[in-house]
Amino acid sequence: MKVWIDILTPKQALFFMNLSLKLKEKGHQVIQTTRRYREVNQLIKAKGLKAKVVGKHGGKDLYKKLISSVERIINLAALIKKISPDIAISFSSVEASRVAFGLNIPHYCVSDSPHAEAVSKLTIPLSKKLFTPFVVPKNAWVKYGISKENIIYYNALDPIAWLKNFKINKNVLSMLNLNEDKPIIAVRPEESFAAYLLNKKESAIIKVIHLLIEKTDAQIVVLPRYQEQIFFLKKEFKNVENVKIAEKIIDGASLLGLSSVFIGAGGTMTAEAALIGTPTISCFPSKPTYVEKFLIKKGLVKRSLNPKNIVKLALKYIEDKNVRREISQKAKALTLKMEDPTNIILEKILILK
User: Fold this and answer.
1) What is the pTM for the complete model shown?
2) Within 262-320, where are the H helices?
3) Which of 222, 226, 236, 296 pairs with 269 at a CA distance of 20 to 30 A?
């Protein structure tokens, strides 16, 4: 079987890396495509993956988003027509689902984000099946035009796909010039270019970093998403010795595992940190997602949009080793019960095809 996988984000690269390997081990041919997008291109290269770059990320402007998507559909259509895969798989890729539908190729969608309304409206109705974590109710998906019978659950959150056999690699410390003996606070800004956050209130991240600088000498590592964020953050925190801006892709899971606390305004890394067992504070600048609600309920994530409260909680986590140990034990107990989602996807697509 010939399988086409479209990879648009770093999370998708990590998730689909294992699925691709398993497909190849069973003798199937895998064709991977991606787009021109700093983080995902760097990660694909770092992991030694092969993916053909088609099109680019449209940025924050709605018109540019539309034009980039249209151009990418045209270019992908020409490529995929030549390749003629048997099935297509993506994380709600607008372009992959449309091209697959237009060329009569079954599209299998993976998503944990019904809050991403724009892409869900454009991909879920065109998908043969939807794979989603068990924490997302099926009713959250049926409004997009898919029947409950075509929704398949996996008993896991997405990061489990690359965390099942995860071991910390301390090389990340030297890459960022970090001291293992001093506390590390990892910080992830929001997905400010995402359609579901356009016109939403800005996150509290910048204020939080300024307050942390005042209150602690802990090492603060900021993990930007875009080149624009890198330029802004470098200017904002120029000559601040204990603030490190990660300008290139790093081993994020290892950094999270070595951190005393993680503060995130996104989704994937927040879930990743929580499942690793690092005390995690979410300041996601919109309503909490189903995944976030689940992790809060399990005691692995605290949520606040108030910078002062976030910093107060972060300092508490740094000072209290017992709390950190308790959170780590909770995470370990939870992840042991979870299955590798790529195993479920592999099993089902082979049966369905």
Assistant:
1) 0.93
2) 268-276, 290-297, 307-319
3) 236
